[in-house]
Amino acid sequence: MKPENASPETQDGNKRFYAQPRVCQFCTDHNAVIDYKSDLLRRYVTEDGKIRPRRQTGACAHHQREIARAVKRARHLALLPFVASTDR
Fold first, then answer.
1. Residue 9, helix vs strand vs coil
2. Domain range summary for the chain, segments of one domain joined by +
3. Backbone Cα Rg of the chain
4. Stated pTM of the model
5. Please, which residues have CB within 8 angstroms of residue 67's CB and are 6 or more apart in sequence?
6. Among residues 7, 42, 59, 65, which is most buried (max CB within 10 A)?
């Protein structure tokens, strides 16, 4: 019989999932620029038009705020949609 704290396995015998922390793309690549005119912003917006949260994008707090600001500017200039288009 194994002691309970011996390994990272559950009582079923399945291994637990440990998510590795994401590294901010903009902190590692200093050449990447957050700009309201770039197509890079489409990666940070859902299909519904919502801005993706930090836990999904992996961006740090500083760059997530810049992404949100750029998305809002692009929406205001009609470069990105506010909401998804519905086909009826």
1. strand
2. 25-76
3. 19
4. 0.72
5. 34, 41, 44, 51, 57, 59
6. 59
